[in-house]
Write a structure and sequence with these properties.
Elements lengths: L1 H21 L25 E13 L10 E12 L4 E6 L6 H16 L3 H5 L3 E5 L6 E3 L4 E5 H9 L3 H11 L3 H4 L3 H9 L6 H5 L5 H14 L6 H10 L1 H8 L18 E3 L6 E17 L5 E16 L6 E6 L6 E5 L1
Parallel strand pairs: 3-4, 4-6
Antiparallel strand pairs: 1-2, 2-3, 5-6, 7-8, 8-9, 8-10, 10-11
């Protein structure tokens, strides 16, 4: 009996030790303002072309600093244009009081939107900018987010506005499709730690956006994060990195990619039908690939200037379009 008690005590102590070495504490309180990491550089590729003033109309602009009505009268409406031909409306609150004052902040936002991954940017419905101070937040179901002029300037001064826009755009683009997805929940459960305390305290609403910023930088710009942070992610967030690899992938620092032809897809996202375009004639086998790497369909295209694929019968989600000799492209069906 005494020997059995000793064995039980040893097993208990061993289990406590195992928990101690496996349960890691988060790296930071949150992903953006609690550290000095510059995840996204001002010099990174930017698809923003410019803003066009569309006029003034009444719009729904939640979160006004002065507590005014949800509906704003004579909101300043701008259309942000990008090199892929897509656009996003930027709604600047009427409290800016002049087109020039409103456009100043629409123009500050434009290049930050232009640095987003294309599929992520194109899922946004619009962006609201208030004149005043407040913390950025997203409306996940409405697929838009809200910024504040004073906070924008403050985050520009600390090189944090790109990261803020990225974080909020994750919330307002694909989060609604994946926050309860089995693949994401499995990655959360299998990893040893949350990357931030904010994500740990809000695992459903915040962890996907908190983790995405680290994963995007790790995958898209290898070596940009400090080596100790990359090692921590590899050891503690390996499953999250694998999950986000299906969205972002390692495309930077791969010289072969520069030799491939561009593949453009519009509209993206879409309810089902997408048109493929390239500078030259499309030629080869179009592979439609799921997030887990399964080839779902293969279609032959023979020297076409453009080609339409129909994913109407597919489940909503992100798919990879791959044609030998072309850069892979991601499409989002919703």
């Amino acid at each position: 009996m005494e020997r059995l008690q000793i064995y039980v005590s040893m097993i208990f102590l061993l289990s406590m030790y195992t928990y101690t070495i496996n349960a890691q504490t988060p790296l930071f309180p949150n992903s953006v303002v609690s550290n000095d990491i510059d995840y996204i550089f001002e010099s990174d590729p930017d698809s923003f072309v410019g803003n066009i003033f569309l006029g003034r109309e009444d719009r729904e602009t939640p979160g006004a600093p002065d507590g005014s009505s949800l509906f704003d009268v004579d909101t300043y409406i701008f259309e942000a244009n990008f090199t892929d031909g897509e656009t996003i409306e930027i709604w600047c609150h009427s409290s800016f009081e002049s087109q020039d004052a409103a456009q100043e902040f629409a123009d500050k936002l434009g290049p930050r939107l232009g640095k987003l991954p294309i599929f992520q940017r194109n899922m946004l419905n619009h962006v609201v900018i208030h004149n005043g101070d407040g913390g950025a937040f997203a409306e996940i179901e409405g697929q838009f987010f809200i910024l504040y002029s004073e906070n924008m300037d403050a985050r520009i001064s600390t090189n944090d506005l790109e990261e803020t826009v990225f974080h909020e755009s994750v919330h307002s683009s694909y989060q609604f499709m994946y926050q309860n997805h089995p693949d994401w929940l499995a990655a959360q459960a299998a990893d040893l730690s949350f990357v931030t305390t904010f994500g740990e305290n809000n695992p459903t609403l915040e962890d996907i956006a908190e983790s995405a910023l680290f994963a995007y930088t790790y995958l898209t710009y290898p070596g940009r994060l400090d080596e100790s942070i990359e090692t921590w992610l590899e050891e503690n967030n390996a499953n999250r990195l694998e999950f986000f690899g299906k969205f972002y992938g390692q495309t930077t620092n791969v010289s072969e990619v520069d030799l491939l032809q561009d593949l453009r897809i519009s509209p993206n996202p879409s309810r089902g039908k997408f048109t493929l375009h390239s500078d030259g004639a499309l030629n080869g086998v179009v592979n439609i690939i799921s997030l887990d790497g399964t080839i779902l369909n293969s279609l032959r295209v023979d020297k076409e200037s453009e080609y339409t694929i129909d994913l109407s019968s597919y489940e909503n989600g992100l798919y990879l379009i791959s044609i030998p000799g072309y850069k892979d492209a991601k499409v989002l069906k919703y």
